[in-house]
Each structure stands twice: as C-alpha cells, then as structure tokens.
Amino acid sequence: MSSYWAFTKKEFLGCFRTSKLVVMAVVFLLLGIMNPVTAKLMPELFKSLNTEGIIFTIPEPTALDSWMQFYKNVPQMGLIVLVIVFSGVLTNEISKGTLINVLTKGLKRSNVILAKMTMVTAVWTMCYILAFVVTYGYTVYFWPEQSCNNIVLAAVCLWLFGVLLLSAIMLGSVLVKGTSGCLLFVGGVVVLMFLINMIPKADAFNPIVLAAGNMNLITGAMAVGDLVKPIVVSVVLIIGFLGGACSVFNRKYI
Fold first, then answer.
1. Which of 173, 88, 91, 158 has the alpha carbon at shortest distance from 124?
2. What is the pLDDT of residue 43?
3. Which distant-in-sequence residues (6+ apart) come within 8 Å of 61 by Cβ?
4. Cα(115)–Cα(242) distance, rounded to whole angstroms?
5. Per-10-residue mean pLDDT for the chain, 254 residues long?
6. Rounded-to-10 torsion of CA 59, 220, 125, 113
7. What is the DSSP string of the chain?
8. What integer pLDDT is reported at residue 57 of this predicted model?
9. 246 with 113: CB under 8 angstroms?
10. d(Cα 131, Cα 30) in Å, to the nearest integer?
11. Of 12, 246, 3, 10, nearest to 113 (Cα)?
12. Which candidate, 47, 39, 42, 45, places its Cα nearest to that of 63?
C-alpha cells in the first residue's frame, strides 16, 4: 500500500511539473466564468447587431440560462480537454519504457493503474468543482432571487460521467498503442453510447444521460429516479474498465 501512495504522489508531482494541472484549472476557471456571463450578455449582443429592420424577440436571461450554458460547455469543451490532456497519462510511459524501473523494484502493475486513476480523478474533481463554484457564484450574483432544482445532483451526474471517461482512458491505454489510439478508443466508447441510446428502452440504462440529460433534471422533465439505472451502470463500467485495465496490464509486455 505504501508503494501505491508513493507512486500516486509522484503522479501528482508530475502532473504539476508538466503544467497539466495548470492547464486544466485555467480551462475550467474560464468555463465557470463564461457560462453565466454568456447567458447574461447574450441578449445585449443580439441587440447590438445591425439586423436591417429585423426585430428579435429575446427573453430576459435567467439563472436557468446560466446552467444551460454550464451543461452545454462542460460536456462539449471541458470533457474534451479532460480526455486530451490525460490520454497519454499511461501510454507515454509504456511507449518510452519509463515504468520498467519502478516495476522491477516491486511496484505492482495494478498499483500503477490505480495510482494514475487516483491522480486524474482528483484533478478532474478539483477543476470541475472550480468551474461549478464559479458558475454558481456568478449565477447567484446576477440572479439572486432565482433558484433551480437539483443543481447539485445534476452536477454529480456529469462528474461521474467524467470519471467513466477517465476509466476508459485507463483501459484504452493498455489495449492500444499510442495516445492517438487511446483517444480513438475513448471516442469509440462515447459513440457506442450514443448508438445504444437509439435502441428502445436501452436509453433508460445508458450512462450518456448523465452528461446529456442534466437540464431535463433541473427543469423537472426528468425524475430523479430515472438516473438510478444509468448511475449504477456507470459505476459498474468504471469498476469493469479499471479491472480490465489491471488484468491486461498485468499480462502486457513492456
């Protein structure tokens, strides 16, 4: 267990030295600021356009618009940045052979997977909370008398989907070669989820709803109970991906 914690500390230090933590923090800080500001200023931007007599009827922005921006920008931009930044977290070391020294000194291969997963999950969690808190603060500032339901639950669902993508990165890193192969693997997992969503009744179990149905939860179009099955499936997949990654990595020649 001590070797696991020692390697985890090394991973955090490496993440900081390579500026990955800084990049993630800056991106998610900007996303957190951009969400409510965009919702607040969008009507003014439309009004400033020279529309040559065309009249736009634009409703006043609300707190709901701010969260709509959050659940549009974080899945479309934040998760993409997350996957790109950490797609090489294991593949780079495998290709360069830098893990040979620590493995020959007795570090279990499963601990390598778990330590890296711990690091990327912690960074994702910190940066995601940063974006959420900033969005929440500006939303309350701009619309102090308005509130939305299930904000925290919707945020937790999106966070869990991010963890699912990170576990897919771990599995993809040991199944395919190179960072580009890992990116294709994770992209294939997401595409498969979208395809499964087209099957009748399968959408009730599909984890993709955790990243795509957040506004339905906030507006009341989706019941809280509808998320139980996707959450359970996501947790099972995370455990399965990590277990598969450890199993494959234990037999992988480095």
1. 158
2. 66
3. 39, 40, 42, 43, 142, 143
4. 11
5. 87 92 96 90 65 64 92 94 95 86 87 96 97 95 89 96 98 93 96 92 92 92 94 98 95 80
6. -130
7. -HHHHHHHHHHHHHHHHTTHHHHHHHHHHHHHHHHHHHHHHHHHHHHHS--TTPPP--PPP-HHHHHHHHHHHIIIIIHHHHHHHHTTTTHHHHHHTTTHHHHHTT--HHHHHHHHHHHHHHHHHHHHHHHHHHHHHHHHHH-TT---TTHHHHHHHHHHHHHHHHHHHHHHHHHSSHHHHHHHHHHHHHHHHHHHTTSTTGGGT-TTHHHHSHHHHHHTSS-GGGGHHHHHHHHHHHHHHHHHHHHHHHH---
8. 64
9. yes
10. 8
11. 246
12. 39
Q: Please give the model's pTM, rounded to 2 decimal places.
A: 0.93
For the record, the structure tokens of 230 come out as 């996707």
